[in-house]
Amino acid sequence: MRNVFNGLEHPESIAIMGGTFDPIHYGHLVTAEAVRHKYNISQVIFMPTGQPPHKKDQEISHSEHRYLMSVLATATNPYFNVSRMEIDRKGTTYTIDTIKSLRELYGDETELYFITGADALHYIFTWKDTEELLKLCTFVAVTRPGYNKEKLIEAIEIIKNNYESKIHFLEVPALSISSTDIRKRVKEGRPIKYLLPESVENYIYKFKLYI
Ligand code: ATP
Ligand code: MG
Question: Which architecture characterizes domain 13-176 according to CATH?
C-alpha cells in the first residue's frame, strides 16, 4: 500500500486542518466536522505543525505530545486522520511545502481544501508563497468567536478580487475555546473539562503538560 494516511488511494477530496494543537480542543473538532459535512469531504487530515515560524519565540509542547493528543481527539471520527508530515519535516515548516507534498501523494484528481480560522486568514500574506498557495488549494475560512465576521468577509473579498483563488466562507457553531486559555486554566488549576475530549484532558494531566 502506498504511504497514504488512511488507506484511501484516490479520495475525492481532502481537507487539511493545520494547527499547533497545543492542545487540540472542541473548537478545532467542531470546525473540521462542519467543513467535512458542508463540502462532502472524504477525509479531514489534522496536520500538527512542526516548529511554526510565527510561534518561534513561544514555548510550545513537544511535537510528539501534540501529535498524540490529536490522535486521541480524532479517534472516534472515521473521517478524521492525523498526519506526521509536518512534525517529521526538519527545520521550519511552511504550508506551501505541505500542500505540494499532498498534491504529489494524492495526484491531481483529489480536491484539496485548507481550513483556516478567522484569525489565521488575516495572516495569510505573511506565509511563504501565498500567491501560489492560493492557486493550489481551496481555502475555507471559518468564523471564530472574538474575530469580526464582517472583517473576515471583507478580507476574503480582497483576496478573491486580487488573486486567482478559490476561497469560501463558513460560519461554524461558536465555541469560544482556545488552546491559550486551556493552557492558562491548567496552570492555574482551573477546570478544562468539556472544553476538549476527556482522553486529551487525561493525557494533559498524565504528562503534566502546561504546569
Ligand atoms: P493558540 O491559542 O495556542 O493559538 P488556538 O486555539 O488558536 O491555539 P491553533 O492550533 O492555533 O489553536 O489553531 C489551529 C486552527 O484552528 C486555526 O486556523 C485557528 O483559527 C482554528 N481555531 C482554533 N480555535 C478555534 C475555534 N474555537 N473556532 C474556530 N476555529 C478555531
Ligand atoms: Mg492560534
Answer: 3-Layer(aba) Sandwich (3.40)
